Amino acid sequence: MVARLLQNFNGSRALIVTANRTAVEALETTLAKLGVTSEFLIVADGRVDFDMISLKQERDILFVDGDLDGTLPLETEGDPRLPPVPVIGLVGVEAPSRLKRLVNLGATAFLRKPVHSAAIYTALFLGVNQFLLRNDMQNRLDDMERRRRGRRSVIKAVLTLTTQTGIDDDEAYNRLRRESMRLRVSLEEYCEEFLGRWAATPKITVREGPSGRRAETK
């Protein structure tokens, strides 16, 4: 299923990171016509004083000037995470190192400087929707990875249930699946919980008594 493309950006907020406001004058004006408010973040020595945690995915869009010197706060050594919002790069000097830097920040669209109003909607459309599609793909991959890891719990739960009850593996699997559906959790989650309960239950073992009788002990 393909994620729905966003076409209306009314109510969004653009956070613009640049030291050259003259080159992006058309950006603020055109964004306002699209219902997008603009805020210019203060740049000092190539750094911006703002907290990435405060960004809201459903509202914020970052416009980052690739010609800034120094290190932006989004660039964290050894941290592979990307900003939680769409990033659109503002490109002046098309040096590979500067373009790479924007790509590493998560840029999914670019605007040439000086910015022209005719190019803004296209960049906004591409930048936001490519970000949403990338996030959707990542969420699907994460879910598949969680399920792959969870399959080990499913197999162990099936084997445990067959040992406990004497039913065959198909019936054990169906019983676990029905119960997970009843509780509205994934099969993998339910099996992990089932194994946890089973591990906490005192086990009954059978041993031979002195008289040859079979005795049950916990």
UniProtKB/TrEMBL annotation:
Every Response regulatory domain range: 13-128
Gene3D superfamilies, per the entry: 3.40.50.2300, Winged helix-like DNA-binding domain superfamily/Winged helix DNA-binding domain (1.10.10.10)
Lineage top rank: taxon: Bacteria
Pfam families: ANTAR
Modified residues (4-aspartylphosphate): D65
Entry keyword set: Phosphoprotein
Residue ranges constituting the ANTAR domain according to the UniProt record: 134-195
InterPro entries the UniProt entry points to: ANTAR (IPR005561), CheY-like_superfamily (IPR011006), Sig_transdc_resp-reg_receiver (IPR001789), WH-like_DNA-bd_sf (IPR036388)
UniProt xrefs under SUPFAM superfamilies: CheY-like
Name used for this protein in its record: ANTAR domain-containing protein
Organism of origin: Labrys neptuniae
